[in-house]
Design a protein that fits this description.
- This protein is α/β, with parallel strands linked by helices.
- Among the domains are: 185-318 and 444-531, no CATH class; 331-440.
- Helices cover 47% and strands 7% of the residues.
- The chain has helices at 2-53, 62-65, 70-74, 84-93, 159-164, 187-198, 204-213, 220-247, 299-304, 332-344, 356-372, 379-404, 413-423, 425-429, 442-458, 464-482, 487-497, and strands at 155-157, 170-172, 251-259, 273-280, 288-293, 310-313, 326-329.
- The strands form 2 sheets. A 5-stranded mixed β-sheet has the order 5-4-3-6-7, sandwiched between helices. Strands 1-2 form a two-stranded antiparallel sheet.
- Helix 6 runs antiparallel to helix 17 (487-497), helix 10 runs antiparallel to helix 13 and helix 16 (464-482) crosses helix 17.
């Protein structure tokens, strides 16, 4: 009996020990989960601080990583010492109005001279001669000038026919159609309003105040009505013509950005609206088209790109998978950005050079360095050399990912970076398929930036009609810039010609397209393509 009791007691002790071990393992697992969650929150907090107060670029400069050995890194003993004379010469050369952008400006000359009586030498009473001329140049600003233009056309009839009582022929002098019937808005005024808002990001209420400073009373409600009507009447058919040209391309880049649109009662909508962007690559026609849609559904790029067959480059958003008959290409900058964010949130005392994130960035630096040497090559040449020199770097990066992935916490920032590249590897490696592809989708992000800047200024669109008009106008303005046209003069020219152009065929608008050789020189005047 005693033996049985001892056995039962031993069994109870063993069960209690197992329970304690299980409880301990459970608590240990919960602690690890809590630590991982805490680390994730710390990473998010640090990343938000960096985004708010740090530099926006995701590039990590090799020379900025090690602060304390900066002198050794940047020292170049073989470089010749600069001379003071050279510095002085270069600086003085950049002063004044000696800029290429000033060459075509008209010159207003004001001469200063003394009277003939003063041109007498005080010493010998002889007449003095003009020895030299001193010139000072200034850049003068002439504020916008506004005037009323009266369009007066005459009507002619035959007096002799009037006398006989027969049907009198009447001839009316031709006159261009107005841009908006029943309104005093002119092509130049409408183009100016659109240019100020969609190129200079100047809201209509500020434009209203500026006009009032010059004694001109134009309400922002009038401006808004003109912009929407002008877009619907004339720019929308032109936009569709550009869209047909874009769909003929074999490479397109896409991006999207959220937008607030108010409902009819003036309240914000519950769901986010989006402005979508589709642009051509560097080897085709230069076109950038925006499209407003009330959601981020993949059906929108599917419908917009219907008929397009080629390569579509974007971020990893799965909505683009609905687009048919295309090959998708990803963005290596998006993949690199995860590693840059990982480094930004590291503690100050961390040795960055020894981190896995820094090792990953070396692969990206090598890839983009190679790509920078091939910018002048044709698409075919670039494809060929990429498969020789870039492909081994991509394969080495993939091997590194597969080796390091099991050793990293999946939910950490580094784990997310590794997982992004692995899960999107087919999209990222598709850059080798065609030389038109870019290593990044930065061109699309840059193209959508003017809209993002404008959105910060006027916060929202007051109606879907206004959002659609904005998309169309942004398309014309940005496409004009891509083709080195002055957006204001180009819009003005369109509003002069479109009301008087009969759309009898799809080619009726070809003479107005941004690459048309028949565009007036005024449209190409004084425009800086780096704007």
């Amino acid at each position: 009996m005693k033996k049985i009791l001892e056995t039962k007691e031993l069994q109870l002790n063993n069960d209690s020990l197992d329970n304690l071990k299980n409880e301990n393992a459970k608590l240990q697992h919960e602690l690890e989960m809590a630590n991982a969650k805490l680390k994730w929150y710390e990473e998010q907090f640090k990343l938000n601080q960096v985004k708010k107060y740090g530099q926006s670029s995701d590039k990590v400069d090799e020379e900025q990583i090690s602060f304390f050995n900066e002198v050794e890194i940047t020292a170049r003993p073989e470089i010749q010492e600069p001379t003071i004379e050279k510095i002085t010469y270069e600086r003085s050369k950049k002063r004044g109005t000696n800029k290429a952008s000033f060459e075509d400006l008209p010159i207003e000359r004001i001469e200063y001279e003394i009277s003939e009586e003063e041109q007498v030498c005080e010493k010998c009473n002889s007449k003095m001669h003009e020895m030299s001329v001193e010139t000072r140049k200034e850049l003068k600003i002439i504020p916008a000038q506004v005037c009323i233009v009266e369009h007066v056309r005459k009507v002619y009839s035959c007096r002799e026919c009037e006398k006989t009582g027969d049907t009198t022929p009447i001839i009316t002098a031709p006159m261009p159609a107005p841009v908006i019937s029943g309104s005093f808005v002119s092509p130049s005024l409408l183009a100016y309003l659109m240019y100020q808002k969609y190129s200079a990001a100047l809201p209509l209420d500020r434009q209203e105040k500026i006009f009032s400073h010059f004694g001109i009373d134009i309400s922002k409600q009038n401006m808004s009505n003109w912009i929407i009507k002008g877009s619907e009447l004339w720019l929308e058919p032109f936009y569709e013509r550009l869209r047909r040209e874009l769909l003929k391309e074999t490479f397109i880049q896409a991006d999207e950005s959220p937008l607030r649109v108010l409902t009819k009662d003036g309240k914000p909508t519950d769901s986010k609206s989006y402005m979508w962007l589709y642009k051509s690559g560097n080897f085709g026609r230069k076109i950038a088209l925006y499209e407003y849609q009330p959601s981020r559904s993949g059906k929108h790029p599917k419908n917009f790109l219907q008929g397009f067959e080629g390569i579509l480059q974007s971020d990893d958003y799965s909505g683009y998978n609905l687009v048919q008959n295309i090959t998708r290409v990803g963005c290596l900058v998006h993949a690199r950005r995860y590693y840059s964010d990982t480094i930004k949130i590291l503690p100050k005392e961390a040795e960055i050079e020894s981190t896995n994130a820094h090792q990953a960035l070396k692969y990206f630096k090598q890839m983009f360095h190679l790509e920078s040497q091939w910018t002048d090559l044709s698409a075919e040449e670039r494809k060929e050399i990429r498969n020789i020199e870039l492909k081994p770097v991509l394969e080495a990066y993939l091997s590194w990912l597969q080796e390091i992935e099991p050793k990293v916490v999946r939910k950490s920032k580094l784990g997310q970076a590794i997982n992004y590249s692995l899960s999107n590897w087919e999209l990222l490696s598709n850059v080798l398929l065609d030389g038109q592809c870019e290593l990044s989708n930065n061109a699309a992000e840059r193209a959508i930036k003017p809209f993002v800047i404008g959105r910060k200024n006027y916060l929202f669109c007051k109606s879907p009609h206004g959002a659609k008009a904005s998309a169309i106008i942004y398309s014309v303005v940005e496409t004009a810039k891509m083709n080195n046209l002055n957006p204001f003069y180009y819009l003005k020219y369109l509003f002069e010609k479109l009301p008087n152009t009969r759309l009898t065929s799809p080619e009726a608008l070809d003479h107005l397209l941004p690459w048309s050789e028949t565009l007036p020189e005024e449209c190409r005047r004084l425009f800086n393509p780096k704007e």
